[in-house]
Each structure stands twice: as structure tokens, then as C-alpha cells.
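Reopening this ticket.

The earlier resolution said the output was attached, but the attachment link was broken on my side. Pasting everything inline this time so it's all in one place.
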Amino acid sequence: MFCILSRLLLDAAIVSDCTTLSKIGDVINAIVDRLTHNDLIKDVSGLPALSFTEYQLTWSVNQITTALIAVFHSVKDLGLQLRLLRSFPAFSPASALLQRRLALAFFFDERSFLMKTAGNLVDFKAIRRHLNRPEFVVNSTTDYSDLAAAIVILAIGIDDGDPPPDGASKETKAAFDHDVDTVAQKIKAMFNQINDTGAAHMKRTDAKQSLESFHSTLVYAMRTKQKAKGGIWDEEEVIEKQKGVMSGFARREK
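Inline output:
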């Protein structure tokens, strides 16, 4: 049932019908909450049932995970993946976690993310490495629609980045912010490499907007501490300005 309902979210006609989409979402959410609650009781046999947050939504492989694995293996088009994720009813902590799991499984093309717990989903170092793959290199063969979809899928999967708790040490928070910054720098570099001048490059513009939105989320909403302003330009911009000046000087010398 869950797998069938999830596949219905791939249909553009259903997604565009608010009434039908709402009903499907209500059923999916009810299934998710019922099954995860039963698994929590089973996993903590003899103990009183606690909240989803206290158990970090951990449960053994169950009907929902099996259904998500089937969806993961059958939906490979990035546009359809994004449509499914955007239409998925993340109304509760449990369904929101499932949405994030599926998003990261799509982004990395790795089904193991469908079984990860809430606190172990986001690995910024792995994300940074994955963004170095050929499909994220901006060049003449880049599919900008796929690039935009992949970045939005990543943003859904990361969500708030699972930051350290308020009581964490300064070192822990600083390490988290550093990891966020490494991804933000890569996203900004990709943004700068896209030339979208002219009305003929709307797909490039859409990709740049997706990158810019994600970069803003990383820098201004995800870091535990806002970066100190270093002047008119940040460090990356200063380096790019210096490169431009030196290349211009070299051309004049020739």
C-alpha cells in the first residue's frame, strides 16, 4: 500500500490536484505513524513507549523501508525524484525523516541511507566529496535541469544539517561550522562557474537560483554561529578578484 501511494506522487496530474494529493498524504502519514509506533514498542520490549524524538526514530527494517527501497530502485530520473520528494507528506517527525532518508539515498544513489537514524544522516565531508563527481562539474555538457534538481534534493536531505545541541562544546560547534563552510564554498564555486547571460539560458538561471538558495541556507541558517564579516568581500571573493587582476595584467604585458 505504502509503495503504491508513493508511486502515485510521481503522477503530475495527481500532484496538481490539491484534494487528491492531500488525501494521499493523509493516508501515507497515518501508515508511517502506525508502523513506526508499533516498531518502537517492539524494539523497546518491556519499556514504556517514549516519543519519536527521544528514540531518534530508530526502528528495524520494516514494511516502509522495504517499500522505499522499491521506490529507490525504480525511480532514477532526477526530475521525478524531486517531484516525489516535494509531494511527500512530511507532516510528522517520522515522515520527515523518511523524506530525508529518501532524498539522500537519491542524491548519493545509495540505498543504505534508507536505514540510517536521524542523527547519522548528514555527513558533510561525504557530501563535499560527492560534489566533486563528474556530474557536478560545470562545463559544456552540463545538464542544468538535472543539476538544479540534484541540489534541491540534497537540500531536502540535509534539512537543518543536524547541528550539535546547544550544550555542545565550542570545538564541536566550530567543527560543524567548518564542515558546513566546505560545502558552501563548493556550492558557491559551482554558482560562479555558470554563465547565464541572455534569455536563452533559463535552465542555467534556474540552476544558479537553486545553488544560491542552498548556499544561503548553509551560510545563514545552518551554521551555529554567523561568520564574521571580513570587509567588502569575503576571502573567496578576494582570491577571485586577485586572479582577475593578475590575468588582466598578464594580457597587457603580452
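Reporter confirms the inline version is readable. The radius of gyration is 21 Å. The mean pLDDT is 82.
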